[in-house]
Specification:
Largest sheet: 6 strands, mixed
Number of helices: 13
Pfam family, one: fn3_6
InterPro entries: PA_dom_sf, Peptidase_S8/S53_dom, Peptidase_S8/S53_dom_sf, Peptidase_S8_Ser-AS, S8pro/Inhibitor_I9, S8pro/Inhibitor_I9_sf, SBT, Subtilisin-like_FN3
Helix content: 10-25%
Shape: globular
Subcellular location: Secreted, Extracellular space, Apoplast
GO molecular function, one term: serine-type endopeptidase activity
Protein name: PROPROTEIN CONVERTASE SUBTILISIN/KEXIN
């Protein structure tokens, strides 16, 4: 029995050694960086500060792990290095929303940094290596959709309106309007057409928007579209080909206000000028989920990770990214201060001095089109002065709009009652722009706006400059000079708008600028007689 006992002991000893080695291997398991998203509102009352809670949560799964960064703005949480097992264990802890491995994204855009002035070296940016290529290397017959349809609206290339025998193998000219642009191409393709020329009408002017068409296609402005139609009607056998000439940069004028851009005046609160500002939003290379094809049509079976998209949904992430850059440079700035910096440093004219153009009309844009102007992130990093706001300022604004206590409390998520003894005014909201509305029928009147500027730059003296050419209103600023001796110092001023009788629906535009000789803090003005 003794040999058996020794053998069993040896087996047990080997087992202990195996467990020890497994434990050692586990402790040396490769660690990677994780982003831990915490629910700050679920922090137990026993913790005085959320970072103490974060550290305790982390130590519950690893004695050696350390927090690399803590996050307090876009999300609440921290980053750390963990093993896969530790990450899974941490994810099961109370108050943990997610534990995600760090993922480094590469910049895919090729133009935005240069366009916004974030990259001053144009030579470092890749140029298109796509040479000219014809689709196909020969000419094809050209036909106008309106002449190849039995429908009165056949020119719009709507579903079921084209005659296949008259468009098969041809390039079809379709007019823009009513149905989606990409759907027009699908209609042409279904009827046997080889390609499409999409022509703008009066409603779209010269605005060109890129689309992921289902067939070879090109978009042209109204002027070119009219010339093409003249050619179609004058030549008994019109022909055409589509030529891809590569990416072109430096097209002027640029930027222009897109026809689809959000426009003022503010129909809900006319005393607040909208839009705030404009940013790149036309023909933007953007991520695409892939749940549908790049055209969004049910018949589009293609799946891609990127797409060319246009819309205010594209300008919004540009501004959001710039806001994040400003927050990184100035962690103590409030959201209102960041918005102010972007607005007061935006530009309203090109380098040649001409005003920004509205592509919808071909004329100069106004503050009802561009708001404060086009974003200039480099200037926004050092705006000099900002118009700041607190949560109570917004609540006072709701009081001025006669919101009920219940409505305000539901928005504030706390009890708040307007002070009955206090006089609230929408013109007191510390906004970086001015919207002035005189009475119905163009009656005379005096409207005052009060503003407060906060110094976020060096000490200095700012002088005001008013530019507004209108016989119907006079503008006075008091005081005309603001002197700041230290950072975060606040100074207030009042703007008085005195209006005379003008026809209803008249609008006038201008600017108020504060300058210390280096920085210019600009505010757009929109005056309306409603």
């Amino acid at each position: 029995m003794k040999p058996f006992t020794i053998s069993l002991f040896a087996v047990l000893l080997l087992g202990v050694c195996h467990v020890s080695r497994a434990t050692l291997a586990s402790s040396k398991e490769k660690k990677t960086t994780y982003i831990v998203h915490m629910s700050k509102s679920e922090m137990p009352a026993s913790f005085e500060h959320h970072t103490h809670w974060y550290d305790t949560s982390l130590k519950s799964v690893s004695d050696s792990a350390q927090m690399l960064y803590t996050y307090e703005n876009a999300i609440h949480g921290f980053s750390t290095r963990l093993t896969l097992a530790e990450a899974k264990l941490l994810e099961s802890q109370p108050g943990i929303l997610s534990v995600l491995p760090e993922l480094r994204y590469k910049l895919h855009t090729t133009r935005t940094p240069e366009f916004l002035g974030l990259d001053k070296s144009a030579d470092s940016l890749p140029q298109s290596d796509s040479g000219g290529a014809m689709l196909p290397g020969n000419l094809l017959p050209l036909v106008y959709a309106g002449n190849a349809s039995n429908a009165t609206n056949g020119n719009l290339c709507m579903m079921g309106t084209l005659i296949p025998e008259q468009v098969a193998g041809k390039i079809v000219v379709c007019d823009r309007g009513v149905n989606p642009r990409v759907q027009k191409g699908a209609v042409v393709k279904a009827a046997g057409g080889f390609g499409m020329v999409l022509s703008n009408t009066n409603a779209n002017g010269e605005e060109l928007v890129a689309d992921a068409h289902l067939l070879p296609a090109t978009a042209v402005g109204q002027k070119s579209g009219d010339e093409i139609k003249d050619y179609l009607f004058s030549d008994p056998k019109p022909t055409v080909t589509i030529l891809f000439e590569g990416t072109k940069v430096g097209i002027q004028p640029s930027p222009v206000v897109a026809a689809f851009s959000s426009r003022g005046p503010n129909s809900i609160t006319p005393d607040i000028l909208k839009p705030d500002l404009i940013a790149p939003g036309v023909n933007i290379l953007a991520g695409w989920a892939g749940s549908v094809g790049p055209t969004g049509l049910a018949t589009d079976g293609r799946r891609v990770e990127f797409n060319i998209i246009s819309g205010t949904s594209m300008s919004c992430p540009h501004v959001s990214g710039l806001a994040a850059l400003l927050k990184a440079a100035h962690p103590d700035w409030s959201p209102a201060a960041i918005r102010s910096a972007l607005m007061t440093t935006a530009y309203v004219a090109y380098k040649n001095g001409k005003k920004l153009q509205d592509v919808a009309t071909g004329k100069y844009s106004t503050p009802f089109d561009h708001g404060a102007g086009h974003v200039d992130p480099v200037a926004a990093l050092n705006p000099g002065l900002v118009y700041d706001l607190t949560a109570n300022d917004y609540l006072n604004f709701l009081c001025a709009l006669n919101y009920s206590a219940t409505e305000i409390s539901s928005l504030a998520r706390r009890d708040f009652t307007c002070d009955a003894s206090k006089k609230y005014s929408v013109t007191d909201l510390n906004y970086p722009s001015f919207a002035v509305n005189f009475g119905s029928g163009g009656a005379d009147g005096v409207i005052k706006h009060s503003r407060t500027l906060t110094n976020v730059g060096a000490p200095g003296t700012y002088k005001v400059l008013i530019s507004l050419q209108s016989p119907g209103v006079k503008v006075a600023v008091e005081p005309e000079t603001l002197s700041f001796s230290q950072a975060n110092e606040k100074k207030s001023y009042t703007v008085t708008f005195t209006g005379s009788s003008m026809p209803a629906n008249t609008n006038s535009f201008g600017r108020i600028e504060w300058s210390n000789g280096i920085q210019t803090v600009g505010s757009s003005i929109a005056v309306s007689w409603t």
